[in-house]
Structure formats: structure tokens, C-alpha cells
Amino acid sequence: VLLICVTLSAAFQKSGTTLRISPGNNYASSSRSKTSVTIWETPRKKTFDAEHQDRRSFGVTLLSNAMMVSTATNAIVWGTFSPPAVAAYPEEKEDKTKLLKGYERLTYLLDHWETETTICQYSGGTKGCERSPENVMVYMGYKSTVDPLFKADKTLKRLSVLVSDDDGLDYIDAMEKWLQAAEEANGMAYVSSWGEANPGGGKDRVQLFIERSKKNVQDAHDALGVAIDLLHLERP
Length: 236
Description:
Blueprint: H1 2-14, E1 18-21, E2 27-32, E3 35-40, E4 47-49, H2 55-78, H3 92-111, H4 113-116, E5 118-123, E6 126-131, H5 134-139, H6 152-159, H7 168-193, H8 203-230
Antiparallel strand pairs: 1-2, 2-3, 3-4, 5-6
Helix pairs in contact: 1-2, 3-6, 3-8, 7-8
């Protein structure tokens, strides 16, 4: 409430108007040369005496002041002022590049799932192949600090300052879906890597968990695509 009052006062002073809040009364009044404005709380009626003030100009002033109060209210509710949609930061270009590159790599992984999750080796002149979840963790950014999707949740969070207020909730939803799907994909791949070592395990268990992780990778890929769209970037 104090923040709103201070903001109102600053807004009215900027326009040449003085805001006066009378202690013990349920109203705030604004006085100006030959102009007085009294705004009563609902259900009391509002009275305006502005005989030498152009009505349109006066309305624009009130609207401007109301917008400043709205910004202050957002600061109270959310704990900080919403950054403008055009705001930039030093890592912006790099973060966008990493996001697009990571999305492109996940697309490739899904399109070549069988190949990318199979390892073939030669032993004694004989070629042997078996399924492996290693590449799932690699593509999801869990194996290298230089991978484009390494700590992608933090990348998405930094890029959130570029998202418009209208798309804010959808972007947060995409971020949450990404994080959940990425962690589950990595978890399924990790379990798969121990499929043969666990009691009762075998190659069939390895393959089972690899295929389960594919759904998680698809969900992560889709969430990343939504985030890219909301950032108004072109999907690769």
C-alpha cells in the first residue's frame, strides 16, 4: 500500500499535480491551479471540478497515473517489476543459439532413435550390436558442460525476460514441462544402463527402459519447441 501511495505521489507530481491523502478520511484528493479532483471510495460517487481543464487532456493524465499504479501493484504482487519484452542481457545471443542447437539435436535423436541408442563393436572379426542409453544422456545435456542443453533450465529462465506478459504463463508451463521431462528421460536412461547388472536384469530390461526414455525425450523436445515459439525464434 505504501509503495502504491509513493508511486501515485510521484506520478501526480510529475504531471504538476499534488496528491493529498487526508488522515482519518476515506478518500484521496488531488488539487491543481483552478482544478480540484476528489475521488471517493465505492459506493460514493466521484466528483470532478475541472472547469479550466480540457477534459481529454485531463483523462489522459489520469490514465497515465493509473498505469503507473498498476506497475507498482505488480511489483507488490510479484516481488519485482516485470522487465520489458524488448529487454536484452549479455548472454542473450548465446542462449538463443544454445536453445536452437539443442532443439535441433533432440530432433535428430528422435529421428534416428534406433541408430543413436545402439552401439556396435567388432570382436574377433565379428560385429556385435547392443542397445545403449548413453546417447540419451548426452543429447539431453547431462554428460558434458559444453553441450547446448547443459543446464537448459537456467538458459530458459534467463531468456524469460524476452517473453511478453501475455505469453508469460505459457512460457512458465513450457519450462516446467521441459525440466520434468528432461529429468525423467535422464533417469530412465540411467536405470537402463544398469539393466543387466540388476538382479533379474538382462538386455530386454535395457531396451525396455531405453524405449520408456524415448517418450520423455519427445515430451522434452515438444516443451522446448513451445518455448522457442514463445520467444519468436524460428525452429531449426
